[in-house]
Amino acid sequence: MPAYRLQPKERKEALLQDQKELRKQLGREIDSCMEIKSTHRNKAKKILADMEVWHIADIDYEVRSAYEDYLTRETSMQAVTVRAYVRGLDQMKRHALREQMQTLKGKRDALENLDKQILFLPYHPEQEIASQFERFVYPESLVWDFRQDASGILKIQIFDVLHALLRSGMNTSIRNGKLEALKTLYAFCIREQVRDLEGLEQKHIARFQAGIAQKQKQATAMQVLDQSRKILFMGSKEINWNANVWYLERFHFEKTRTNPTNPVRTFSFLEVAHRQNKRYLQQYMKYCLGVTHLAVSVIQIELILVRNFIVWLEQKEVHNVCCVAEATIERYFKKQEQLDIKEAAFNRKVTSILHFFDYLKVRGFITKIPLCAQYYRKKEILKHHDRCVGVDVYTELLGKLQFFPENLRLMFLHLWGIGLRASEVCSLKGNAYSIQGRDAWIQVYQIKMQNYKRIPIPWALYRLMKVYLEKYQIGPEAYVFQNRKGGAYCYTTFRKNMLKCCEERQIADGGYLFKSHDYRHTVATMYYDNDASIQSVRDYLGHDHEEMTRQYVDYMPKKIAKASEEYFSKKNNSLAVGIKRCKRGT
């Protein structure tokens, strides 16, 4: 017989021999999974061999689906039994992954190109992630297909956010809700052809939110969207200045520029629709944050005012802020004059917009500033604010203070006793209290004024605080009143808790609205009424100018009443002294 007639037969025999060896190898790998029932192992040997899957490490979601279909279609097993056999296959896959991840090469091979394939979370190479899904009911929710026709940037972003959520250590129910929301967001971005999560526009967000029917799921989806943007902004190698939302935790500001009791968390550019206007505003904010030494809260106000101006321009079909006419700006400020805003607030708008145009001119985007600020600025007339707390109110509050939480009691005493700002109380450090001679003192960092002040305090408050510091082992550099993470107590939380306690204790029959700054006015007025000079009160409050102090203490009715009482108490100062009695008609 010719030799060429033997070749196909030899090849067939060789192929059969190879398959026999592969079956033996597959059998050895499956038999090494001793924790799996023998019936499950034997079934897997046959079906995987028929599917020509020769290594348990090659099991993936598609193999798993085919395995389950085979058991459902070709056998008479009930659904519960099918799930048990498939669970055995899952255990084999995890067994193979554990062995593979023990070597550097195996680890590199397992983690390679995960963001370019179907990722089935129970088959994740990282055991910390895979172990979260040892028991699951609906496998479809755990499948992430990164082969879909979508932007490569988007797929990498979703992949990164997914892993950040999986590594966050949240409980199962919250995790599952967030994964479902992220998957919905991924599908939405593919459908809307969104290329970059950080570039999502307001119109996209509105459509995304409207597409979710249940309010609870809608809230979770919006939370996940915000969390996704934050993860991407915080985790990028370089700051993405073109992101529509900036998360300021990424930046490291000087201590004097931030308020730890009420931190600014984000800068949003979503409201600006036209890309070029958005870029101008983002570049201006980048300059403000990086070059100037302004407080972040001041920059935030500047952002809001300029952003509102640009949004108004876009509504008037002015698509490039560099091309705005003086007449259009005049119309804008006339519109603002119709609003019920004070002169100082109006002037701040003028100044903020002027600063923005100054920046555009310096950068060469415009040649002339289309705004004459002096023409629009209004004269500011300082007005006194009568905000003193009535004696009966704070006396009642002091009487019921024992029912308030300990930290709120002490924080209130700082307001009522020494007139500190609420932000100053919330940011006090352990080394703030000291003794000099026979007096007790407190050193306070004034966030608003960006400097320190040192004032005397009552001995009773000093002793109370020393007990509190020792009781909770608060160090010199630690915050006296702390949030859950050990940071400065949040002003908003303080006010909310005080309002709640005042309402529960029916202060002033439940009609008292707690305002921390009112106690600062009360202390200032008390000193002034007791003949302290305006300069002394100014230094005590920590003001730079007497004009500001006068807004606290120049409330005259009490002083007029006191002077009148003293005058008319004298013998010859009665209003009736000059009245002569006479007969009627003469």
Automatic annotation (TrEMBL):
<dbReference type="GO" id="GO:0003677">
    <property type="term" value="F:DNA binding"/>
</dbReference>
<keyword id="KW-0238">DNA-binding</keyword>
<dbReference type="InterPro" id="IPR050090">
    <property type="entry name" value="Tyrosine_recombinase_XerCD"/>
</dbReference>
<dbReference type="GO" id="GO:0015074">
    <property type="term" value="P:DNA integration"/>
</dbReference>
<keyword id="KW-0233">DNA recombination</keyword>
<dbReference type="InterPro" id="IPR010998">
    <property type="entry name" value="Integrase_recombinase_N"/>
</dbReference>
<comment type="similarity">
    <text>Belongs to the 'phage' integrase family.</text>
</comment>
<feature type="domain" description="Tyr recombinase">
    <location>
        <begin position="384"/>
        <end position="565"/>
    </location>
</feature>
<dbReference type="InterPro" id="IPR013762">
    <property type="entry name" value="Integrase-like_cat_sf"/>
</dbReference>
<dbReference type="Pfam" id="PF00589">
    <property type="entry name" value="Phage_integrase"/>
</dbReference>
<dbReference type="GO" id="GO:0006310">
    <property type="term" value="P:DNA recombination"/>
</dbReference>
<dbReference type="InterPro" id="IPR011010">
    <property type="entry name" value="DNA_brk_join_enz"/>
</dbReference>
<dbReference type="InterPro" id="IPR002104">
    <property type="entry name" value="Integrase_catalytic"/>
</dbReference>
<protein>
    <submittedName>
        <fullName>Site-specific recombinase XerD</fullName>
    </submittedName>
</protein>
